[in-house]
Structure formats: structure tokens, C-alpha cells
Design goal:
- The protein has about 90 residues and is of the alpha+beta class.
- The chain has a domain of about 60 residues.
- The chain is built from four helices and three strands.
- A hairpin with a 2-residue loop joins strand 2 and strand 3.
- The protein is globular, with a radius of gyration of 13 Å.
């Protein structure tokens, strides 16, 4: 399955409005995914697979997505309000 297919699958349960805009937003957040969007997801490095997992989670219609990583000292929450994405 391609990287873009994975991202679209992340939005499977939500309404289809703004799907393309959200897809472009994920490509802005994770530019390497845009460069490789037609490739199979299995060809990504471990870090790139983590980016894909985060982007796929953000494609859902949930209001908030939080994750942490001790290895990278990463503590991030993304919040989506009507058509606005932000990180805190």
C-alpha cells in the first residue's frame, strides 16, 4: 500500500469534506512523505514510518492527537479546530 493510500485510509471513518486540504497539510508537516507518496510504505525508514503513523492518526477527524517519545525527547500535541491545525 502506498504512503498516500495509508494517509487516505487514516481518514476512512470521517466525512470526505476537506480531505485533500488535510492531505496537503500532512505533506507540509512531513515533506518527506510528499516526496515518497507513491512508494510502498514498507520502503520508508523507521523514522519515516513514525512520521507516517503520526500523519495517518492526524488524518482522522479527532480533535486532538498526542504522543511522546523518550528516545527523541518529543512531547507533542496537535489540536485541530475548524480548518486550523496547531501544535502545542
Amino acid at each position: 500500500m502506498s504512503i498516500e493510500d495509508n494517509l487516505r485510509l487514516g481518514a476512512y471513518t470521517r466525512a470526505r469534506n476537506n480531505l485533500d486540504a488535510d492531505l496537503e497539510r500532512m505533506y507540509e508537516l512531513f515533506p518527506i512523505l510528499k516526496e515518497k507518496r507513491a512508494l510502498p510504505a514498507g520502503t520508508l525508514s523507521g523514522g519515516q514510518q513514525q512520521m507516517l503513523a503520526m500523519a495517518r492518526a492526524l488524518m482522522d477527524s479527532q480533535d486532538c492527537c498526542c504522543w511522546t517519545s523518550r528516545r527523541w525527547d518529543l512531547h507533542r500535541c496537535w489540536s485541530r479546530r475548524p480548518s486550523v491545525w496547531s501544535s502545542t
